[in-house]
Amino acid sequence: MEEHQTRSLHRITGPILFIFIIVQVITGLVISADQLKEPHSHAIENYQTIEETEKHSGTGHVHLHLGENVFSQIHYGGGMVGSVYRVALAIGIIFQAVTGVMIFLKIRSRMAGKKD
Q1: Better-predicted residue by pLDDT, 62 or 80
Q2: CA-to-CA distance for 42 and 24, rounded, in angstroms?
């Protein structure tokens, strides 16, 4: 891939991924801060217990609760769509890291060539 193509893709995907990364970071931060207040609280286990309980209540869907559970739903939930979202986000972050390293190495090789 040409350097200008790499830079262009890196520049386009960065701001898009930023939005989703911030959502994951903020919800994870709130969940973690809440767990610090209650050291024996396990957010994901609490979320899964609530989800299973409500699935078996006959409604067939999960109700959002205020507080930690809203953040847990955003951070961990979403069923298959949520799982696809998190996998896509992980792939996007890996893509950004790899293209960033590629750009860095190309710049470094150019700088090394100028020193000679």
Answers
A1: 80
A2: 17
